[in-house]
Structure formats: structure tokens, C-alpha cells
């Protein structure tokens, strides 16, 4: 029971402090799930990101459900999914009821101007920390460079990129 | 109406791959253009609020639209519709995944996929940096945040709070001195 409470609190925190989309929350998930609680290995975490990327829906929800299941089964997945959404629900309710106060306040604009550069740093740090586990030899570095090029400059669909990388893995390893 | 709302968001949740941002145009087509539940302007405001708030942007947006259409019940309905497909699909995959994870071929597939995840995140960084048009000071803040996270054992929560509150103090000071 106490592990479910911990799971709930971790994902509530993740939901509350995730600004700027799914990738920006990766460092926070890593901190809470891997470093503080040791619930997953780095490799498992990266595999879950890849699967979340390939399935429909927001990455935050996908990874919360997946991680919850991994940590405490179906009950865990229900708890973590509710926990990650609850902050959104509370904040959206407040905004909906007090919308005018928020709209005209310069404070929220100032706040977001300050966190935007931080969010960029957060996402970059996610790339670095995933790389530390993903790079096992020179071949894996080459896969990263190749996929980066075709996704960024040739606009290849990320799902197809993941499938290509998976096939490359079977051939090369 | 509630059932109709649920089905609409369920469909969006079930068929958009590529994260929350990919869901926004689909929600817009369903809610604004097809069903005409909400005016374009109001929808754009809702997008801005959803992006500027913590949490998954598609979930935030569905909650706001739900509130607007049917109050608290509507918000719960739309939120559930958005997350339920992800939840069910992932649950299905998770139960299968952990049985096959140690299969040697699956292992090789994932050794190949992990570097691709690095590439996808790096690509997001590149595109975000290009789009954001930061000045040098802001890039220095980004790089500092990156280095702190990589080399020190500090929670990203503190960086977000320091960045946000620091920025409020900075702009408030600037605002005040320009008025004086």
C-alpha cells in the first residue's frame, strides 16, 4: 500500500512540474522513478520512451501507465495515470473558474519567459542521459547520427525512424 | 451530449500518434470545424492556456473544452476520453512486453532503437532551439540548466522554480524601473 502512495506522489509531482511537453518531463521521471526510488533500470526506461512514442496518445500518459504497470501491476498503472493527470485537472479547474484574473496578469507571462530556456536545457539533458545508456559502441552512435539527420532534415516520421532503427539493431547486433 | 463528447475525445486519443502536440490540430478539426461546439477564437485561447500550464497539453485542452461545454461533468468526460485509449493500449502492450523482453531478438531490436530515441530527443532540441529565437543570455541559461542536470544531482523541479521566479523578479524590476 505504501508503495502505491509513493507511486501516486511521484507521478503527481511529475504532472505538476511538467512544462513544455512529453520530452521535458523525462528528466523529472528519471529523477523520481530511477534515482530516488530505483523502480526501473535506465535501459527499461528508454525502451518505455520508445514504445510511448510509437503508440497513440500523449507521451506523459503512455509512460505513466507503462511505468505504473511495471512497478505495481494494473493497480499501479491506474494510480500513476490518475496521479499524472490530477494536477492538470486541478489547475485547469482553477483557470476555468478564475480565467480573467489569469489572463490579464503579467506574472504568468514573466514566469513562462523564464522557464522556456530551462525547458530547452531539460530536454537536452534527457538526450544526454539517454545517450549514456544507448551508446554501447560506435554503431549505436552512427544510428543516432543517421536517424537525427533523416528525422530533422528529411522530415521522416518518428515511428518509421524507430522501426528502421529496430531492424538495424537486429541486423547489426 | 456527454456521450458524444466522450466518443469524440476517445477517437482523438486513439488515433493520434506522436504525442500531445500532434493531437491539437485533430481536436481543432473535430470540435471547431466539424461539430462547431466552440468558436475558433475561444479554442485558440484554450490552446494557449493548455500549453502554458503544467501537464500534457492534450489533456489540459480536453479538460478546458469539457468545462466549457458541460461544466465539471464535461471536463471529467473529455479528460477520460482522451486518456482512456492510451491507457488501454499501453496496458495491453505492457502485459505482453515484459514477457518478451528477454527474448534475444527483442533485445537486439531495442539495442537498435535506443540510439534512435537519442536522435528523436536531439531533433526536438534542435527544432525547439531554432523556433524559440532566444538571445545569447537565454541560450546560456539553457546550457547552464543542461550542465547542472547532467553533472549535479539536482531535481529539475528546482530549476523550473528558480527560472520562473527569477524571471518574475527580473521583469518586475525592469517594469518598475521603466515606470520610475
The greatest interface here is: A-B, 102 and 95 residues
Largest sheet of chain A: none
Number of strands of chain B: 0
For the largest beta-sheet of chain B, the strand count, sense and barrel status come to:
none
| Average of the residue pLDDT scores of chain A | 88
Beta-strand percent range of chain B: under 5%
- Mean pLDDT rating of chain B: 88
Number of domains of chain B: 2
Q: How much helix is in the residues of chain A?
A: over 70%
Q: What is the CA-CA span between the terminal residues of chain B?
A: 54 Å
Distance between the termini of chain A: 42 Å
Succession of helices and strands of chain A: HHHHHHHH
The structural class of chain B is mainly alpha
Q: How many individual helices of chain B?
A: 7
Radius of gyration of chain A, in Å, reads 18 Å
Please summarize what this structure is.
Chain A is an all-alpha fold and about 170 residues long. Helices cover about 80% and strands about 0% of the residues of chain A. Chain B has about 180 residues and is mostly helical.
Features of this protein?
heterodimer, A: 173 residues, mainly alpha, 2 domains, B: 180 residues, 7 helices, 86% helix, flat
Overall description:
The complex is a heterodimer of chains A (173) and B (180). Chain A is 82% helix and 0% strand. Chain A has 173 residues and is mainly α. In chain A, helix 1 crosses helix 4, helix 3 packs across helix 4 and helix 7 packs antiparallel against helix 8. The mean pLDDT of chain A is 88. The model of chain B has no long low-confidence stretch (mean pLDDT 88). Chain B starts with a helix and ends with a helix. Chain B folds into two domains: 99 residues, no CATH class; 76 residues. Chain B is an all-alpha fold. The interface between A and B is large, with 102 and 95 residues.
